[in-house]
Amino acid sequence: MEKDFHYYLTYAIAKLTEVEKPEIVAYASQFVDDNNEGQFSVDGEEVGFPERLKVGGGYYYPVMTQSLSPKSFDIYVQRYVYVPFHFLPGDNSKEIKGEKNPLSVTPFSPNAKAVLASALDSMNLYRIGIALHTVADTWSHQNFTGLQEDWNAVYPWYNVFKSLVPNIGHAEAGHSPDVISEPWIDYRINKDLVDNKQRAFAAAESIFTTLQANTKKGTPWSGVKDNFKGIIDAPDYDERIGRIATLVGGGIPKYDKDTWIDEALTKDKSQKTCELNPNYQETRWYHFHQAAKAQLAEVVDLIKEI
C-alpha cells in the first residue's frame, strides 16, 4: 500500500472508530515506510541508517522499518525489516507451481491478527499504527515473501529486462501491487488482472471492523461502507485524498516525514553527523522506535522460520 492507505485511509478509519489520537496512529502507520536510510541525510547528503546514535555519555540503537537502498540485498534487512513490517508470513495455504512457502504473505492471516491484537491489547498508539501498516500490507503483498528467492519471480525468464530485477518481495512487479488504482498481472498464478481496489476495500473493511470491535465506538461499518467503496474506486491518488477529507469532515493533519525525527535529532552539517537531543525519550520518534522494537521481537518469536 501507499500513503493514501497507510496514512489517509488509516486516519479516517481510526477517527471514525474513535481510536484515541488517530493522528498518531496514522503517522506511525505511514512512518513505517519513511523510517529508512533517507531519514538520516545531512545537508542533502545521505549518511546511512546508523547502528547507534550518540546521546549524552551513551548511545541509543534505533530500528529500521524500511530499506530503499542496496542494503535490501542484506539477508538481515530482509529477515528483520521486510518480513516483520511488510511481508508478514501467512498460513502457508497458497500453492505456486506446485509448491507452498511458509514465509508467503496471506491477507489477514492468523499471524497478522495476532500482531494487531497484541498491539491493541498494549493500548500503545505507536504499536497500533505500526501493526496497521503491516496488516494492510498483507493484502497488497499477498503471495510474496520478504526474502530474495525464486518464489517471488513474477515474470517468465524470457522477459529479460523485467526478470533481471532481484526477486526480493514484489520487486519484479515494481510498485504495481501497492497502487490502489493500478491493476496488474501476477504471472506466477495466472494471466488475469489483479484488482487492487478489491484488495484495498477488503483491507479497509477488516481493519475498520477490528478497530471498532476493540473501541466499541463510532460509526458502524454498514454506515460508511459505501463511502469507503467510493474512496477506493476513485480514479487516482489525489481524488482519493479529496474523498477521504470529505468523509472525515476535512482537517486531516498534514503528514511530513521529518516532523518526528526533527524533534529528536540534531544534525551537524559541518561533520555530517546526527546526534540525539537530551530529551529524545520524550519525543514521538523515540516512542515509535520503542514500539517498532516490540513488534520486531514479537514477530521473531512468532515466526520461527526467520
Give the secondary structure arrangement, pairings included.
Blueprint (H helix, E strand, L loop, with lengths): L2 H14 L5 H13 L6 E2 L2 E2 L6 E3 L2 E3 L14 H11 L9 E2 L2 E2 L9 H13 L2 H16 L19 H4 L20 E2 L7 E2 L1 H20 L5 H12 L4 H12 L10 H6 E4 L4 E4 L7 H19 L4
Antiparallel strand pairs: 1-2, 3-4, 5-6, 7-8, 9-10
Task: Provide a descriptive summary of the structure in words.
The protein has about 300 residues and is mostly helical. Helix content is about 45%, strand content about 10%. It has eleven helices and ten strands. The protein has helices at about 5-15, 20-35, 75-85, 110-120, 125-140, 160-165, 195-215, 220-230, 235-250, 260-265, 285-300; strands at about 40, 45, 55, 60, 95, 100, 185, 195, 265-270, 275. It has a two-stranded antiparallel sheet with strand order 1-2. Strand 5 (about 95) and strand 6 (about 100) form a beta hairpin. Helix 2 packs across helix 5 (about 125-140) and helix 4 (about 110-120) runs antiparallel to helix 5 (about 125-140). The longest helix has 20 residues, at about 195-215. The relative contact order is 0.18. The model has no long low-confidence stretch (mean pLDDT about 95).
